Amino acid sequence: MTYEVRVETPSVEVYRHLRVAAGLSPKSAAAAAAGLHGTWHAVVAYHDEQPIGMGRVIGDGGTAFQIVDMCVLPEHQSRGVGKRIMAALMQQLLDHAPSTAYISLIADGAARHLYAQYGFAETAPESIGMARRL
Ligand SMILES: CC(C)(COP(=O)(O)OP(=O)(O)OC[C@H]1O[C@@H](n2cnc3c(N)ncnc32)[C@H](O)[C@@H]1OP(=O)(O)O)[C@@H](O)C(=O)NCCC(=O)NCCS
Predict the structure, then answer these.
(1) What is the pLDDT of residues 76-122, one digit of tens each?
(2) Residue limits of the N-acetyltransferase domain (predicted)?
(3) Ligand 1 center to 37 CA (angstroms)
(4) Cis bond leading into 10, ω under 30°?
(5) What are the boundaries of each domain within the chain?
(6) Are 70 and 112 in contact (CB under 8 A)?
(7) Element housing 54 (H / E)
(8) Hey, CA dihedral for 90, 72, 83, 45, is it positive or negative?
(9) What percent of the chain has a predicted confidence (pLDDT) above 90?
(10) Can you give the pTM of this predicted structure?
């Protein structure tokens, strides 16, 4: 199968569909619209002109960035699309973020093996990732 990774921010509809279909938590249309507006960089992966994956970088544009919303539809997983998405996001960071930028992410399950290929390492025990939901 052939895939194309395009630099673009997903629409609210595509974003909400891809997240849920890939097993990530749902977001309301209002939350998605507000969040997508704050995108620093994003890509959408296509197969047969249909969106099948995405990834985004959010952040302040200078000091701190986070990789979020990484997902590929189950029927297209394990075919290298996730790696192409990560490579595109990392290239943008390497080209446009200051060398002092701190780039973080939260890896769910086996996705840690993907991120490790792009230089991400566990922060523990020196630093512990912390999170909460409202
Ligand atoms: C995580 C996800 C985006 C990866 O996308 P993908 O297209 O399946 O990934 P790729 O085919 O490009 O493979 C990525 C690499 O991850 C690694 N990997 C993926 N799953 C793995 C597993 N279960 N065990 C070990 N390594 C694994 C592999 O090393 C692979 O690299 P390799 O081909 O050099 O061995 C996708 O599986 C997904 O959408 N999962 C559900 C949503 C999710 O959990 N998103 C991540 C939130 S942090």
Answers:
(1) 999 999 999 999 999 999 999 999 999 999 999 999 999 999 999 99
(2) 3-134
(3) 27
(4) no
(5) 4-116
(6) no
(7) strand 50-59
(8) negative
(9) 99
(10) 0.96
Q: Read off the tokens for 23.
A: 């097993």
d(C-alpha 73, C-alpha 54), whole Å: 9
Altogether, the residues listed in the chain come to a count of: 134
The number of the ligand 1 atom at minimal distance from the alpha carbon of 76 is 7
What's the topology of domain 4-116? Aminopeptidase (3.40.630)
Nearest CA to ligand 1 atom 15: 114
Q: What is the pLDDT of residue 1?
A: 83
113 lines ligand 1 (CB under 6 A): yes
- 93-121 in b/e form (b: 16+ CB < 10 A) is beeebeeebebebebeeeeeeebeeeebe
